[in-house]
Amino acid sequence: MQSRGYSPHSAAAPLAGGAPLGGAKIAVATSHGRHYYRFVRSLRALGVRFDSITPSRIAEHGADLVLSTRAEAPAGIGVPVLHEDAADEHPLLLCGMMMRRLGHRPEGDELVLGVDPGSRTGLSVFYCGREIGTSFHTSVDGLVSHMIELMAGLGAKRRTIRIGSGNMEVTRRICDLLNLRYCSSFDLELVDEHGTSPRTRSLNRRGTRDMLSARSIAQRAGRKRTVLPHSVPA
């Protein structure tokens, strides 16, 4: 069974060392094989290092955050815990939950999605000032569905989409679909793509170049406008 948010038209790259979590010590503590497999799959997709322990060792292990089940995690252990329902979420949504439990949610509570549009579209996701994931997509429909899932699920106070101007046909399709399907407002910035693409051709394997370009776009301000859902008068 696949977790929600995965798409056959997309691929994601983990961030080395689980950088968004700032080196926090993570432990998976469950004897249930199904829940353990789901937790581990998401953590590996994020590039997060973790320890596997038995539930009886939670209190003594010294983890900063524990992934366990409601039935197995003892009460009053003084350690933040995420339970089995979190394992059903897309890995990036799980990452956001982990950041919040670890206190990594400063005043700059913003989600920034950097998009490098093209036949293969790169996506970079910054949450609370940290890049939590990258991916590339061959389907505009799948890309937009993924972006909406992230905007709705991460619950940031500010949502900004920075999209490159290099392929305006694809850019317009993405913006139109977002405006039709997403029921909350967001800021849209059209970014000059000049200088955002790596020059090394070898990086173009499995969409790496597209994802790196999306990362550069996410960190570059563009012409800004606020997009309101159709149900809200401009």
What does this 3D model show about the protein?
There is one protein chain. This protein is α/β, with parallel strands linked by helices. It has two domains: 22-101, Rossmann fold, CATH 3.40.50; 110-227, 2-Layer Sandwich (Nucleotidyltransferase, domain 5). The chain is 29% helix and 24% strand. It has helices at 33-46, 58-61, 91-101, 140-154, 168-181, 208-218; strands at 10-13, 26-29, 51-52, 65-68, 81-82, 110-116, 121-127, 130-137, 158-164, 186-191, 223-227. Strands 1-8-7-6-9-10-11 form a seven-stranded mixed sheet, with helices on both faces. A four-stranded parallel sheet has the order 3-2-4-5, with helices on one face. Helix 1 crosses helix 3 (91-101) and helix 4 (140-154) crosses helix 5. Residues 1-9 have low confidence and may be disordered.
Can you give keywords for this protein?
2 domains; seven-stranded mixed β-sheet; 29% helix; Nucleotidyltransferase, domain 5; 24% strand; Rossmann fold; 6 helices; 234 residues; alpha/beta
CATH architectural group of the largest domain: 2-Layer Sandwich
Query: Shape, please?
Result: elongated
Helix content: 25-40%
Uncertain segments? 1-9
Strand order of the largest sheet: 1-8-7-6-9-10-11
- Estimated share of beta-strand residues: 15-25%
The total count of helices amounts to 6
Mean of all residue-level pLDDT scores: 85
Structural class: alpha/beta
| CATH topology description of the largest domain | Nucleotidyltransferase, domain 5
Task: Supply the CATH superfamily name of the largest domain.
Answer: YqgF/RNase H-like domain
Top-tier CATH class of the largest domain: Alpha Beta
Number of strands: 11
Radius of gyration: 19 Å
CA-CA gap between termini: 42 Å
Largest sheet: 7 strands, mixed
Could you give the order of the helices and strands? EEHEHEEHEEEHEHEHE
The total number of structural domains is 2
